[in-house]
From TrEMBL:
The active site is at R20, N38. This is acylphosphatase. Transmembrane segments: none annotated. It is an enzyme of class 3 (hydrolase). Residues 5-93 form the Acylphosphatase-like domain. One of its GO terms (molecular function) is acylphosphatase activity. Its EC number is 3.6.1.7. The lineage of its organism: Bacteria, Pseudomonadati, Thermodesulfobacteriota, Desulfobulbia, Desulfobulbales. It catalyses: an acyl phosphate + H2O = a carboxylate + phosphate + H(+). Belongs to the acylphosphatase family. It comes from Desulfobulbus propionicus (strain ATCC 33891 / DSM 2032 / VKM B-1956 / 1pr3).
Length: 95
């Protein structure tokens, strides 16, 4: 099974609309590890790793988003695999 790791940034109305929680749920459903967090500029940052097909499914989901979100575009790139596939997918909160 081919594996993939991506780092993405989601633009649009993606904060204060439960986007991170919905992203976490979708990533967990797909068996991915990684994290999601809000950035000060109003975007949401996502990093995930897992089966390549499932990472692609999450990328497709990110372009649609949660029910109240309005995604304008998603930029992403593939990064080096880290092999942390047993780690859960989590929400990072600002400290």
């Amino acid at each position: 099974m081919e594996r993939k790791r991506i780092h993405a940034r989601v633009h649009g109305r993606v904060q204060r609309v439960a986007f991170r929680e919905y992203t976490r749920r979708e990533a967990m459903r797909l068996g991915l590890s990684g994290w999601v967090r809000n950035l000060p500029d109003g975007t949401v940052e996502v990093q995930c790793e897992g089966a390549a097909d499932n990472v692609d499914l999450l990328l497709a989901w990110l372009s649609i988003g949660s029910p109240l979100s309005r995604v304008t575009h998603v930029e992403y790139n593939e990064t080096l695999l880290q092999g942390k596939t047993d780690d859960p997918f989590v929400i990072w909160y600002a400290s």
